[in-house]
C-alpha cells in the first residue's frame, strides 16, 4: 500500500486593525514575491490621504523570500515599524543595509 503525502500549502493572511491612529497589519504564513506585490498595493492604498502610522506585525510569519526581505527593509526605511520581526529576518535586513551603498 502506497501512502501519498500532499504538500502542505501555508496560507498567507493579513489582518488589519486600527487603534488611536495606528494601523497594524498582522501577517501570517509565508511571504514570497506574490505576497510582496499584494502588500505593496495594500500599503499604497493605506497611505493615500492617511497620516496614521503603520505597523507590520510579523509574529506569525513562518518563511520569507528574498524579495520579502528587501520589501521589509524598504518599509522600515520608509517609517513602517516591523514588530515581532523574526531574528533571521532582522539579520538579513541588517546584512542588506550594510551592503547597500
Describe the structure.
It is a single chain. The chain has 101 residues and is an alpha/beta fold. It has a domain at 31-99. It is built from three helices and four strands; from the N terminus they run E-E-H-E-H-E-H. Strands 1-2-3-4 form a four-stranded mixed beta sheet.
Rg over alpha carbons? 15 Å
Pairing-aware structural class of the strands and helices? alpha/beta
- Could you state the order of secondary-structure elements as H and E? EEHEHEH
Number of helices: 3
Reported for the largest beta sheet, the result is: 4 strands, mixed
Based on DSSP secondary structure assignment, what is the total number of beta strands?
Answer: 4
Q: What integer is the average pLDDT? A: 86
Keywords summarizing the entry:
101 residues, alpha/beta, four-stranded mixed beta sheet, 4 strands, globular
Topology, element by element:
Elements: E1 13-19, E2 22-31, H1 33-47, E3 53-64, H2 66-77, E4 81-83, H3 87-99
Parallel strand pairs: 2-3, 3-4
Antiparallel strand pairs: 1-2
Summarize the structure.
The protein is an alpha/beta fold and 101 residues long. The protein has helices at 33-47, 66-77, 87-99; strands spanning 13-19, 22-31, 53-64, 81-83. The chain has a domain at 31-99.
